[in-house]
Amino acid sequence: MNKLKGKVNIIFSLQFSQISRFITFLIISSIFTKQNLTHLTKDEIGDFELMMLLSAALSYFWVTGIIQTFLPLYNNNHVFSKRTHFREKSPEIFNTFLMLAFFSFGFALLIFLFRNNIYVYKDLKPVPHVIPLVIYFILSNTTPLIEYIYYVRNRPYQIINYVLWTASAQLVLVCGAVILGLGIETAIWALIAVSAVRFIWLLVLLERYAEFRFSFEYIKTHFRLGMPLIMSSLLSGSSQYIDGFIASWTLTPDRFATFRYGSKELPFSKDLSNGLNNAMLTGFSTPEKMRRAMYDLKKKSLKLMHYLFPLSIVIMLSSKLIFINLFSREFSRSADIFMVYLLMVVSRLVFPQTILIGLKKTKIVFWASVFEIAFNITASLWFIYYTDRGLVGIALGTALVHALEKIFLVAYNYYKLNIPPKAYIPVRWFIFYSLLIATIFVLIDRGILTIY
C-alpha cells in the first residue's frame, strides 16, 4: 500500500470500492454457474439471486439518500459548529450511523414479521432463506458508511486496503463453501460472516472518528434534506428492481436466474458514476467552489466517457461470447437483456443531479424521480404487451426512462438555475459517443451486425 502513496486520490478510491463490489459478486456468480465445480442447480442460484434482490431493493434508496445527505452536511450545518482541527471527532458521523442502524433494524423487522405473507416465483413459493436474509440485511446496510468515513477524513489508501481485504475474504469464503460441496445455505452464512467483520470494523472507526453526541436537531435536519433524496433514489433507482420483481413473480426460479444474470449494467459504469457523483457533493458550498466543482465534474466525466463508451461498444459486440464463457451456455439468453442495459451508460455519464444535490435543491430531484417511475412502468408495460420484445422490453423501458430523467434535470439547471449544459458536460463528446453506441445497438438489433 505504501507504493500507492501520492498516486491515488480520494475519488478514485471510492470508484475502486464500487468496482470491487461489482467484480466480487460477478466472480461469485460465475463460480456458482460452474455445475461441474459446485453442483448447484439453477433453482438454488435463483434463490440466492432473489435474496440479493430483496436485500438491495429494500435498502438501496435510504442508504443512498442518507449517505448523500451526510456528505454536504459534514462539518457544514447549523447544528454542530465547524471543527477547526482536522483531527476533531465528528458528531455527524455518529448521528448518520444511528440513522442507518434505525432503518436497517426497522426494515429487517418488517421482513421478519411478513415472512409468511410474501410469495415469489410463478408458483407463489414463500421467500427462501428468510432468516439469513434478515441477519444479512441488518449487518450489511450500515457498513457502507465505512468508505465515507474514510472519504471525509481524506484517507484513500485506507479505503483501498479495507476493500481489498474484505472482498478477498468474501470470495474465498463464499466460493469455497460451494466448491467444497457445503451447499448454498453455507455460502449465504459465509457472506453473513464477512458482513459481521465489516460491522465490527465500523464500530472501531466510530470509536476512532465519531463523537458520541446524539442530536435530534441534527437528525431532523439530515432527514429533512435527505427525505427527497431517499424518495428520489427509491423512485429513480427502482427501475431495475421493479424489473426484477416483475420477473420474480412471472418466472420459475431457473428462468429468474437467467433474467437476473442479464439485468446488469456495464461493469463499472454505475459504480464509477456513483462514486464520482458522491465524491463531488461537498464542492458546492460557495460560488467559487461551485465553479471549480463544475469544471472538475466536466473534466472527470469526460475521462469516464473515454473509457466507458468504447468499453460498452466492445462488450455489446461480444456479449454472447462473454456470457457463454463467463457463466455457461444455459445463460446465453441473458446476453440479450444485458445488451439493452448497456445503453444505460448514456444516462449515467451526465451529472445534473450532482449540482442540484450539492446545492441542496433535493426536491426537484425527487419530482424528477416521480416522473421517471411513472413513465417507466408505462413504458415497460407497453413494451411487454404491445411489442414482440417480451421481457427484454422491460429493460428497454428502463434505459429509455433514465435518459428522459437526465434530460429533465439538465433542462432545469439551464432554465431555472442559469447553468448551461456545457458548464459541466463535455457536450460534443457526449453527443458523439451517444449516437455511436445507439447506432451500433440498432444495427445489432436489426441483424446487420453480428454479436460474437
Oligomer: single chain
Residue fraction in strands: under 5%
Order of helices and strands: HHHHHEEHHHHHHHHHHHHHHHH
Count of DSSP E strands?
A: 2
Provide the domain count. 2
* pLDDT < 50 stretches: none
Write out key terms for the chains shown:
452 residues; mainly alpha; 2 domains; two-stranded antiparallel sheet; 21 helices; 2 strands; 74% helix; globular
Provide structural commentary.
This protein is an all-alpha fold and 452 residues long. The chain folds into two domains: 1-231, no CATH class; 264-452, no CATH class. The chain is 74% helix and 1% strand. The longest helix has 31 residues, at 287-317. The radius of gyration is 22 Å and the shape is globular. It starts with 9 loop residues before the first helix and ends in a 7-residue tail after the last helix. The mean pLDDT is 83.
Short description:
With 452 residues, the protein is mainly α. The chain is 74% helix and 1% strand.
Helix-strand layout with pairing:
Elements lengths: L9 H24 L1 H4 L3 H16 L2 H14 L17 H23 L5 E2 L4 E2 L3 H11 L4 H8 L3 H24 L3 H27 L6 H21 L1 H13 L2 H10 L6 H12 L6 H31 L1 H8 L7 H8 L3 H4 L3 H7 L3 H25 L5 H26 L9 H19 L7
Antiparallel strand pairs: 1-2
Helix pairs in contact: 1-8, 1-13, 3-6, 3-11, 3-12, 4-5, 4-10, 5-6, 6-9, 7-8, 8-9, 10-19, 12-16, 13-14, 14-21, 15-16, 16-20, 18-20, 19-20
